[in-house]
């Protein structure tokens, strides 16, 4: 997802790795608890996932557009190269519109993923891309525009109407309680890139609340919010203090330096929940082997070329909709052919040993 790429990752990292304040219903996992989870969890590679037929989270989860056939097809491509984890975004509006149906579709998705031997990281909130949204049919993709239809959650609505916070609490607790002991879920990513899209510290109240709601429910899976921009010092500090295991994003060619710095500064196991942007020199070849060597679960952005248009770069639209010479994200074409067979061969070798 588009962001300011921060190159000064080492600034004040040690100051961020402080014990959490004793306010939560249950404490943040200790380093010992986090490493116990890590040792019980096999190393995995995977991708951020939405079916190729969905332009955003609402199109993925609404009843009229929930596409189990494409979900199964696309997850089959991932399983074929040994991927064993997907990061999947939810949206509170899909829940609010049809609470029981939404949770049933989550169960259906998990069943499909489980048949492919794939576990899931669910994302609750998100500060990226379009700040308004509506239920019902979603817009068509804008040709050549990266993630032209992706939507924030809750976005502008919360800032216009703070009373929405009660709905967000009910949504978060309902979802977490429903799946609190589901072993098919690897972890809960409570909030994607808080402070993005210019929100900055305005995202702090929701960030604080979603951690508190999560601790109140106390699911069996770890809770985390990925660090992504160290210029957002207050948010980053809070994320690191309150995450049971450390998740992070990095789309630079200094990825392994970043990973080593985070390991040293936090003393907790890492999960990389976003990487791989080819035109930024973030590739599988210069990231994935080193991540496996360090035991860092690795989740790249993008799986199958589709309505999200993430083969196009954040900042280089191609309004004629022609295919870029170098894909930004994504691994497969819709028919299952890999964009770059050398990449899928590398992934298969690292995940399956062949």
TrEMBL record:
Keywords: Glycosidase, Hydrolase, Signal. InterPro entries: GH, Glyco_hydro_5. Residues 1-22 form the signal peptide. The keyword Hydrolase applies. It comes from the Bacteria. SUPFAM superfamilies: (Trans)glycosidases (SSF51445). Residues 146-261 form the Glycoside hydrolase family domain. Pfam families: Cellulase. The keyword Hydrolase applies. Belongs to the glycosyl hydrolase 5 (cellulase A) family. This is Cellulase family glycosylhydrolase. It comes from Chitinophaga pollutisoli.
């Amino acid at each position: 997802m588009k962001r300011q790429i921060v190159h000064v990752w080492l600034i004040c990292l040690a100051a961020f790795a402080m014990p959490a304040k004793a306010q939560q219903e249950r404490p943040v996992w200790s380093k010992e608890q986090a490493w116990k989870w890590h040792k019980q969890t096999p190393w995995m590679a995977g991708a951020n996932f939405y079916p190729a037929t969905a332009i955003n989270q609402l199109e993925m989860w609404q009843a009229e557009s929930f596409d189990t056939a494409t979900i199964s097809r696309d997850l089959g491509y991932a399983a074929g190269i040994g991927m064993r984890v997907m990061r999947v975004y939810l949206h509170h509006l899909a829940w609010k519109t049809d609470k029981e149906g939404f949770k049933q579709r989550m169960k259906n998705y998990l069943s499909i993923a489980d048949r492919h031997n794939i576990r899931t990281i669910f994302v609750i909130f998100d500060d990226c891309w379009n700040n308004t949204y509506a239920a019902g049919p979603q817009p068509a993709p804008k040709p050549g525009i990266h993630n032209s239809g992706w939507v924030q959650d809750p976005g502008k609505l919360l800032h216009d109407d703070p009373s929405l916070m009660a709905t967000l609490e009910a949504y978060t607790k309902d979802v977490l309680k429903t799946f609190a002991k589901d072993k098919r879920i690897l972890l809960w990513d409570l909030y994607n890139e808080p402070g993005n899209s210019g929100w900055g510290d305005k995202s702090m109240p929701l960030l604080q609340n979603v951690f508190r709601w999560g601790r109140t429910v106390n699911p069996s899976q770890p809770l985390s919010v990925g660090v992504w921009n160290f210029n957002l010092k207050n948010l980053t500090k809070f994320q690191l203090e309150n995450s049971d295991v450390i998740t992070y994003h990095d789309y630079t060619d200094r990825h392994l330096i970043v990973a080593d710095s985070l390991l040293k500064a936090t003393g907790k196991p890492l999960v990389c929940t976003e990487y791989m942007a080819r035109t930024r020199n973030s590739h599988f070849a210069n990231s994935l082997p080193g991540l496996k060597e360090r035991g860092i679960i690795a989740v790249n952005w993008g799986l199958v070329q589709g309505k999200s248009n993430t083969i196009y770069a954040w900042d280089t639209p191609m309004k004629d909709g022609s295919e870029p010479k170098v894909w930004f994200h994504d691994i497969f074409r819709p028919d299952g052919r890999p964009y770059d067979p050398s990449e899928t061969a590398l992934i298969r070798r690292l995940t399956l040993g062949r």
